[in-house]
Amino acid sequence: MLLIEFDRDSMREPSERQVADLGSTLEWKLRYVYFEADVTLAADGFDAENFRVPVLDFLYCLLLSARAIREGENGRVSFTESDVLIDFVRDGSDLKVLRSWDPVPGHCGTDEFIAAVCRFTADCLEFITGEYPAFRKNPTFRKLTLFRSEFA
Question: What is the pTM of this model?
C-alpha cells in the first residue's frame, strides 16, 4: 500500500501578482515558490504522516523517481529547503520506502508506486488548473503533463 496525497484546503494561495504572471512564470519559481501545501505519505510498514512542501517540486521529484524505477534504478525525493530525503529502493518487484527522518522502512509494489505518482500528479494538476486556469498556458504545465503521459 502506498498513499501520496495533498490537502487542497492547505494550499497557500498565490498573491495577485503571482496569479497575474502565472502563464509566464519560470519553472523554478513555480516549483519552489508557488502552491505550497500539506502532503500525506503512508506505506505498508509506517503510518500516514504529513509535511508541508511546494507541491509542484514534490510532484516533479516523484515523476523523476517513477522514471528511474521504471528504468530499473532507485528513486529519490530530495527537498531543496532541507536535508530531508525519501528514497524508493528497488527490492525485486517491490520498493522499500526509506525516510531520512525515521529509521522505520515502508514498502509497496512497484506498480503501486507508479499508480500513486500518476494519481498524485493528476490530482495536483487538476486542482491547480481548476483554481488557476492561467497555469494551463505555462510551459511548465505542458512539461509536467507530458512527463506524466510517459506512464499512461
Answer: 0.95
